[in-house]
Every structure is written in C-alpha cells, then in structure tokens.
Amino acid sequence: MAAYIFKRLLLVIPTLFLIMLFNFVVIQFAPGGPVEQAIANITGEGVDAAERVTRDASENIIQSSGSNNSRYRGAQGLAPEFIAELEKRFGFDKPVHERFFSMIRNYLRFDFGDSFFRDRAVVDLVLEKMPVSISLGLWSTLLVYLISIPLGIRKAVRDGSRFDITTSVMLTIGVAIPGFLFAVLLLVVFAGGVYYDWFPLRGLLSDNWDTLSWSAKIADYFWHLTLPIIALTVGGFASLAMLTKNSFLDQISQQYVLTARAKGLSERKVMYGHVFRNAMLIVIAGFPAAVVSILFTGAMLIEIIFSLDGLGLLGFEAALQRDYPVMFGSLWFFTLLGLVLGIISDLMYTWIDPRIDFDTSES
Q1: What φ, ψ does residue 120 adopt, rounded to 5°?
Q2: Distance between CA atoms of 199 and 223, rounded to whole angstroms?
Q3: Which residues contact 192 (CB under 8 A, 6 or more apart)?
Q4: Beta bridge partners of 114
Q5: CA distance to 53, 65, 88, per residue, from 59 (Å)
Q6: Is 3 exposed, middle or buried (0-12, 13-18, 19+ CB in 10 A)?
Q7: Which of 14, 16, 51, 172 is spaced 20 to 30 A from 275 at the CA atom?
Q8: Residue 333's pLDDT band (boundaries 50, 70, 90)?
C-alpha cells in the first residue's frame, strides 16, 4: 500500500501542473482582463471599483489627444505610457510563459500574492471566507449521508413495494429540481417572500450575535443555515439514496447472501453482518469527493442566493472582476485538496474492506 500511495503522490505534481497550465492558457483568451477592468473603472464604465488602482492612477493619468492603437478595449484617449504602467502593475509587461512559471514557483512556496482589486492577500481572503463554505459543506454532507443510507437500505429491503415506488417518485422529483431553484422557493415560502417569515433572508449570523449567550449563538447559527443546508441536501441525498439502494440490491443477489440465509442467519444479521460492508464500500469511500463537490461547486449559487460570504461567492466575484491571483490561487488550493482527498478515498476503500490491495491489483 505504501508503494501505491507514493505513486499517487508523485502523480499529484504533473496533474496539478497540467490543470493550472490548461486554465492559464484558456483565461488568456478571455476578454476583459485585469487591465481592461481597471481601464473601465477609471473611465467610469466599470461597475465594481478597483479602488487602489483608481486612486493611484487618477493622479497620473494623461489624456492623449489622438487615438492610440492599444489592444485593450476602452483604452482610447489614454496615453500609451499610462497603459504600460497598468500592465506593469498587473504583471502583464512580461511574456505569457514567464508569468506562468513565475506563478507556479510562487505557488510551490504557497505564496499566492495579493488580490488585484481587494488590496489583500489571497490567503487571507480564502481563510476569511472558508468558515462559511465549510459550514455549508460539512453539515450538508453529514445530513445527506444520514438520510440517504437508511433510506437506501430500506428501499433495497422493500424493493418493488409501495414504499419503494413512492419514495422513488419523490427522489426523482428531488433530483430534477435544481438546487438554486429550490433555494429560491424556500426563500419565497419561508423567508418572508410571500407566505411565512420564519427564517432570515441572508447572512450567516445575526447583527447582535456577539451579545448572545452560547446557547443562543448556536441556535442563531443553525437558524441562518437551515434553508441553505436544505437547498443543498435535497438533490444530494436523492442521488445517494438511489446509489445505496442499487448497491445493496447488487449484493443481495450474490451467492454468499444465499448461503448465509441457508445457514439460518436472521435477515438483520445477513444485511448488517454480511451485505452492509460490501454494499457500503462505494458509498462511504466517496465521502471525501462528496465533501469537495458540495464545498466548492454546489454551494456557489446557494451562497449567492442567500448572500453568504463564502468561497463560492468569492470565486464568482473574482471571475467577474478577472482577479487572477484569487482565481488561480483558489484553483491551486482546491485542486490540490481534491487530489489529496482522492488518495484518502482510496485509503478508505482498504479501511472498509481490508481485502482490497491496490498494490496487488496494479501488478
């Protein structure tokens, strides 16, 4: 197993490099880069102000009497010297390949630089937003598994019954409804939209949170998280419940189950003593991947809808502003985390079923 882990760790390096290279190349062709964003803000065309850039540049801006041949949209009327100053500020005065390898060298030292438009270190921004996303990801994943596994087992045991058919219809509806649409529905019904005003409309904590007692703080925390977690859970537990059911049905038809029943073992002992370990292998081993999926992808729209200042919202705003340090720094961190969790998933396979040996399977 040690040899397999070592090989997987070695694969992390080229995989991470290729992912960063692909995204870096793609983003070079995207219109509206950081320089254009700063120009739009200076000329009054931008929506989100790049305050530091504007403050420094507005004092040194030189109006050009003629039109220049700048490749940046909206740069007409700005002196070439000023455009060159902006390029140097954002690092675009260097060749593309030099910028890429310089970024990789810094990232290997976990130096992610500063945000272009927030005047803060990328690491500080990520650490500041992470508690919100972790809260959503962990609680949603925990709730998904607590609902899906018992429901999937019961559906497998009562396969074809009215209970199985009814719950399958409900799960199909749950999968079909996008999470963000269900989130809007929850806001309309339970957050003062039209019907009830039971839950807060936005934010993770109340304004008077610091003055509350510990028990009131915990209640307030979950009061704000209730609707976002429900919105994230609906689609997740539906698909996982069907996966659990199908996994159990596949194992129930195996020969060892028939043998165990022929020996006179109770149905409970057959299910939880023999079937459970094999059937839950694929379900439990996928837990790290499920956390990453909910934490860094599925929660983005939920954070935007419920005005939760987390990593999803940070990435969304960074993409709109072309804030490259935040975009690539977050991509590096999350990709590395995903690759490491993939290795942890393999380790969980061997922990759940010691009969699995990746070294033997590779050889």
Answers
A1: -140, 155
A2: 7
A3: 201
A4: 121
A5: 10, 18, 17
A6: exposed
A7: 172
A8: confident
What does the CA dihedral 124, 129, 131, 132 come to, rounded to 10 degrees?
Answer: 180
CA 284/CA 144 separation, integer angstroms: 12
CA angle 137, 314, 136 (to 5 degrees): 15
Quickly count: other Cβ atoms within 10 Å of residue 255's Cβ.
Answer: 7
First to last CA, the chain: 12
Q: Exposed (0-12), middle (13-18) or buried (19+): which is 235, by Cβ within 10 Å?
A: buried
What pLDDT sits at residue 66?
Answer: 40
Q: What whole-number distance in Å separates Cα of residue 230 and Cα of residue 237?
A: 10
| Beta pairing partners, 63 | 78
Tens-place pLDDT, residues 263-277: 888 877 887 777 877
In 3D space, the residue among 156, 345, 159 whose CA is nearest the CA of residue 241 turns out to be 156
Residue 43 identity: T
pLDDT for residue 359? 59
Give the span between the Cα atoms of 336 and 14, in whole angstroms: 11
d(CA 90, CA 325): 10
- Quote the tokens at residue 250: 């596949």
